[in-house]
């Protein structure tokens, strides 16, 4: 039963974490409205489309994660009762795969995207390019904030699963 509690706690934390993507998405949409209504300069007007796109992307990520983890949360108990060892084994494999994905996407690809966007600010002088680059940097930073914490949580969850399965084998 300890395994089910650990899995449920992790899934609840992920549902909570997805709310931050939704919050950042809403903030980007509000910023879009601000630039649209109050923007007088070319650069301010150039921010409207990039911030709207970033807001929609973050909202999509947040809502997708929310509903995915919410359904996962409700399926844990059923999967646990059907076959506990298979449930734990599948969770260990899933968490290990997710950790590998985080290592590639969050810790390599996102910093590269930020670096490219920063270079575009320097080398492109059109307002739309600068606004897009700045928006990409801020959006990627928001994703990093949430995903670094999610990575730490899933590593901890994986370790707990491995410890629990080790206790059960003894």
Assess the beta-strand content as a share of residues.
Answer: under 5%
The helix/strand class is mainly alpha
The overall pLDDT average reads: 93
Order of helices and strands: HHHHH
Explain the overall architecture.
- The chain has 5 helices and no strands.
- Helix content is 94%, strand content 0%.
- Helix 1 packs antiparallel against helix 5 and helix 4 runs antiparallel to helix 5.
- It has one domain.
- It is mostly helical and 170 residues long.
Summary of the model, kept short:
The chain is mostly helical and 170 residues long.
Which short descriptors sum up this protein?
mainly alpha; 170 residues; elongated; 5 helices; 94% helix
Topology:
Layout: H1 2-38, H2 42-46, H3 48-82, H4 84-123, H5 127-169
